[in-house]
Amino acid sequence: MAGRIVVGVDGSEPALKALRWAAGQAALTGDELQAVIGWEYPASWAAAPGVPPDFDPEQLAHQILDEALAGALAPEVAAAVTRTVVGGNPAQALIDQAKGASLLVVGDRGHAGFKAAVLGSVSTNVAQHAPCPVVVVRGV
């Protein structure tokens, strides 16, 4: 019986490397692959001037996820991936989506990562709290 591998995607190079690794692992194990992106408004945006009124972060998340899959995977592999966009904290979105999964895969840091940090905040959080085994794929 096939399982499910969940991979976090934010469009960063470490996340794309994690996506490629997860797709390769899914091909080896026969598991389904689910790509997840979480998004949330930064607290400072509530009163920020200059944010266009038609700005749609959920649509942007869908676009980032679609572009990541198209750029990192062969078309037939990308077509078979379940795509999940979750409004909320990205780490919590991954933890929630990983319930019942055989594996959760993340890159070592995303777009907001501090260069001096060994791991980003999302990868650290999921490594500590995920309900399944976690693989953290090093970026560079």
CA gyration radius, whole angstroms:
15 Å
Shape: globular
Secondary structure: number of strands: 5
Q: What order do the SSEs take from the amino end to the carboxyl end, as H and E?
A: EHEHHEHEHE
- Report the structural category: alpha/beta
Strand content: 15-25%
Portion in helices = 25-40%
Q: Tell me the span between the first and last alpha carbons.
A: 34 Å
The average pLDDT value, as a whole number, equals 88
Q: What ranges have pLDDT less than 50 throughout 5 or more consecutive residues?
A: 113-118
Number of helices: 5
Described by strand count, sense and barrel closure, the largest sheet is:
5 strands, parallel
- For the largest beta sheet, what order do the strands appear in spatially? 3-2-1-4-5
Write down the oligomeric state. Answer: single chain
What does it look like?
There is one protein chain. The chain is α/β, with parallel strands linked by helices and about 140 residues long. It has five helices and five strands, in the order βαβααβαβαβ. It has a five-stranded parallel beta sheet with strand order 3-2-1-4-5, with helices on both faces. α1 (about 15-30) links the parallel β1 and β2 (about 30-40). The longest helix has 17 residues, at about 15-30. The chain is globular and about 50 Å long. The protein starts with a strand and ends with a strand.
